Amino acid sequence: MITVLSQKGGAGKSTLTMQLAGGLARAGRRVAIIDLDPQETSLRWAQSADPATPFPAHVVRLEGEPAGLHQQIKAARKGVDHVLLDCPPSIEHAATLAALDEADLALVPVVPSPADLWSTKGVERLILQVQAGRKGSARPLKAALVPNRVLRTNLAWDVLEVMRDFSLPVLGAGLSQRNAFAQSAVIGGSVYQLGRAAAEAAREVDKLVTEVLKLTGEKI
């Protein structure tokens, strides 16, 4: 169970969720996504796909109240290898708290900017609390910060260095600010469907999938 969460909008939760799902599917994994965000970006993304080439993961919205998430996950897990939870942009939201409670792995997309770093501190505190509560349990919570929407500027590199001062580890892969990620949303797919024009973006997603599978303990 992989939960993608952040404290503020614009961090790229849905982009990370959908590209990761596309990469996992390309790696031979069967994937389902539950969209917990009231904006339903992941759901709308998948619905934009041509019926002849549907998005390579089954995407549904949260049905009912967050308290019922566990049962919906049980149903979604049938016949799939990974369930991804795309959370609302708030750590106070009941759906985010429920998704984190269900998670085996929490991924926090972080745009390398001062404002995003400040908001990430709150996410980190929440995750560390959950990790402490599960210490010694049969279901520990793994977590990582994921650089996202990275611009090739000196400020971005400086902020990425500051990220290493957090208690949570920084994933050894991230996503840059590329047109290919936005274009893939328009066609309801992932960057793998955009051909050579998105080759660099696809390589970034490949690296992301590799790092995530390492965290989950799976063979790549």
UniProtKB/TrEMBL annotation:
Q: Which SUPFAM superfamilies match?
A: P-loop containing nucleoside triphosphate hydrolases (SSF52540)
Q: Where is the CobQ/CobB/MinD/ParA nucleotide binding domain?
A: 2-184
Annotated coiled-coil segments of the chain: none
Q: Which CDD domains match?
A: ParAB_family (cd02042)
Task: Report the domain of life of the source organism.
Answer: Bacteria
A Pfam family (short name) is CbiA
Q: Kindly give the InterPro entries that the UniProt entry links to this protein.
A: CobQ/CobB/MinD/ParA_Nub-bd_dom, DNA_Partitioning_ATPase, McdA, P-loop_NTPase
What's the protein called, per UniProt? Answer: Chromosome partitioning protein ParA
**Species classification:** Bacteria, Pseudomonadati, Pseudomonadota, Betaproteobacteria, Rhodocyclales
